[in-house]
Design a protein that fits this description.
By secondary structure, this protein is of the alpha/beta class. It has one domain: Aldolase class I (TIM Barrel, Alpha-Beta Barrel). It has ten helices and eight strands. It has an eight-stranded parallel beta sheet. Strand 6, helix 8 and strand 7 form a beta-alpha-beta unit. Helix 1 packs parallel to helix 2, helix 5 crosses helix 7 and helix 7 packs parallel to helix 8. The longest helix is centred in the last third of the chain and has 19 residues. The radius of gyration is 17 Å and the shape is globular. The N and C termini lie close together (6 Å).
Length: 250
């Protein structure tokens, strides 16, 4: 089994002093994390350069939280994948439910961003997941299946790309999917990846993201087909994030 990827999504949090302090605390405390964890943090755009500087030479990689599908151009307020790479980022989160909901991003948009990220040399972490209404209507597998089909470009499984399953109803709510819920959905996602990409689909890591915390991380990371965790709120406290990372399995 490959190392599990533990990715922290800081979202829209962190002025410079806070972000620098968090990055330094992660660097100082990483000794408690075993070799089973691959580590990445994704600060706001304004804090990427600082995180890269503080975490340079450590076990931590740094990523962005979004990118545009174009490499450059007249796109006010957006950031291009080559710009993230230029700052020292190596990963980028794409298709997060908050982008899909708040910015009305379509699967096709996410797919174009994945292509742009890959061309720039970034590892795309592509999010899929269902809302509570979709799950209640027994449409969760259809929803996630269509997102996988629409959001992942041809050849995705041949590269370093990662899929993150995030039950939207569990993000920031304190609710967490049960172990059976996670196992069932991750098995479904694996089957969809294999159906779409053939044997290469077996090699794509599938992260779980949905109110992961220090208390439930070990159980969630032990579920079959869970290749790591996408951590939201708990990634803003160094001790919590490091405890989650310490629960990774190799």
């Amino acid at each position: 089994m490959s190392r599990q990827l533990i990715a922290g999504n800081w979202k829209m949090n962190g002025l410079t002093a806070d972000a620098d302090g968090l990055a330094q605390a992660l660097r100082d405390g990483v000794g408690q994390v075993g070799d089973a964890a691959e580590l990445v943090v994704c600060p706001p755009f304004t804090q990427i350069a600082g995180a890269v500087r503080i975490l340079a030479g450590s076990r931590f990689a740094v990523g962005g939280q979004d990118c545009h599908m174009a490499a450059k151009g007249a796109h006010t307020g957006d950031i291009a994948a080559p710009m993230l790479r230029d700052l020292g980022a190596t990963h980028v989160i794409l298709g997060h439910s908050e982008r899909r909901q708040n910015h009305k991003e379509l699967d096709e948009t996410v797919r174009e961003k994945v292509v742009a990220a890959t061309e720039a040399g970034l590892v795309p972490i592509v999010c899929v997941g269902e809302t509570e209404d979709q799950r209640s209507a027994d449409g969760h597998e259809d929803t996630v299946g269509w997102q996988i089909k629409g959001s992942l470009p041809h050849g995705f499984a041949d590269g370093p790309g990662v899929v993150a399953y995030e039950p939207v109803w569990a993000i920031g709510t304190g609710r967490t999917a049960t172990g059976d819920d996670v196992a069932t959905m991750h098995a479904f996602i694996r089957a969809e990846l294999v159906r779409q990409f053939g044997d290469a689909g077996h090699g794509v890591r599938i992260l779980y993201g949905g109110s992961v915390n220090a208390g439930n991380a070990a159980a969630l990371l032990a579920v079959p087909e869970v290749g790591g965790a996408l951590v939201g709120g708990a990634s803003l406290a160094a001790a919590d994030f490091l405890a989650i990372a310490a629960a990774a399995r190799g």
